[in-house]
Amino acid sequence: MSEPSSELKEKPARPLNRWGLGTLSVLQILFLTLSLIALNYLGYSHFKRLDLSREGVYTLAPSTTRYLKDKVLSQREKPIKWIMAFRRSSPFYERVRALAEDYSRLSNRKIELEVVDPLRSSERAQQIIATYGLPLTKDLIIMDARLDDSAISTVDKDNNRILNPNVKIVVAEDMAIFSTTDKQRKITGFQGEDVLTARLVESIEGRARKMYYLADKSRLDAEGDGESSAMKSFYNTVQFQNIELQGINLSGLTEIPADAEGVTLVAPKYDFTDAELAVLEKYWKSPRAAILILLKPGTTPAKLRTFLRSYGVTPRRDRIVTAVGKRIDTTTRATFTYGVDFTKDFAGQATVFEGASSSLEVRENEDDLLNRQIHPVSLIEVAEGFWGETKFGEKNTAYSEQEDHTPPLHLAAAITRGSASDDRFAAETSRMVIISNTDFLDPNRQRAENMDFLASSLNWLMDRQSLAGIGPRSLGTYKLPLLDVQVSFINRVNLFFLPAFLLLVGAFVWSSRRA
Hints:
By secondary structure, the protein is an alpha+beta fold. The chain contains 12 helices and 23 strands. The protein is 30% helix and 22% strand. The strands form 6 sheets. A 9-stranded mixed beta sheet has the order 10-9-11-12-22-21-19-16-17, with helices on one face. A 4-stranded mixed beta sheet has the order 2-1-3-6, with helices on one face.
């Protein structure tokens, strides 16, 4: 028997098809390039931004977002033109540009943004100077919201140039928060969104809404002084809502001026005369009246109290307190209610009012009020565990079921007069907001949600529901206290240990490849 041959027949090798491999490689590269271009296009057109900061400080506030999507902008025939003339070396350049791009994107391009560096684009800068008559010596944003071809500016009799009411300027310095320490003025915060939104509203509306402040009946201006006063805080909040606060004396008036779009009364101390109360009553009964009243606890003048009670809200002569061990505490915990549309962003959220507060009795859904088309609604309800102490300041203060006011207790209320639920007459309704605390205006006692609530109340009174809600948050600068030993350790990590670690990784990879 013959043994099988150990030699196997080898198949001839196929010739290498270089043209085929080359064509396949070219097609792969071509398809990869097309895929990258398509992904880049889709990523440019359809994307979602994520704000990973702890408090979402790089996301526009709900009130701003709502306003940018409101019909005020969406129904405009002519977009609003923004010219951001900022030097790239400006410390605010990147932050302001990101904000401005967000405004343009969320407005569905109803805001057309142009970014110009005056140093790099000198020709375009000269065109802007010639068009708007503004020297670009400072970083600024020009907002042009004109709906027609009206003049950008006019000249008055004194030869001063006055910009069109629909053209506003935002200077970079207006967005910074300054503080003075050791006689040095330093930037300690950034409030770009507040300023941009306020100027945007001004440019669209063309003028500030006018609210009269009853100066002879209000006594808040006597508290504090300068930038740290409660009155200054109130004025700044009003101003940021594009509302002009103008003081008048109620005494001697026969009626509130016809151009009034709102009236505010803050911390009234002295009572009204019958004639003065008749003036306030006449204004309240007129269409589209708007009244904001901030009350100090337990000191509501008798005739003003009677006026408010006739419309379903009665300021009580008490002090909201709770027992903490053997101590009586006046710091009030409360919750925003679902009372009115402008509180929907706050509804269910807890808050704290420091200082002194009195309770309000709110007669919701009472037949005698409904028959007169009067609708009082609670806006802030005090948390459990508090009561309205009627003998605050006396010794051995304790809860008395017979004398004190029991829950539910209310800190703020709104009143509407008219058919607010009927779209045909809703614009003619009168509105009022009453808050029984003024200490929350004190800069040392302020809380963001309470100031947002005040701003939302003002916008609701001005019939600007789209601007109501949680407002912008200012960015602050913070010092990180480090000991010399800690600084030295960080320097060693950055200058020695980190480079040494990367060098070891590189050596390990090189050694692996050599093996």
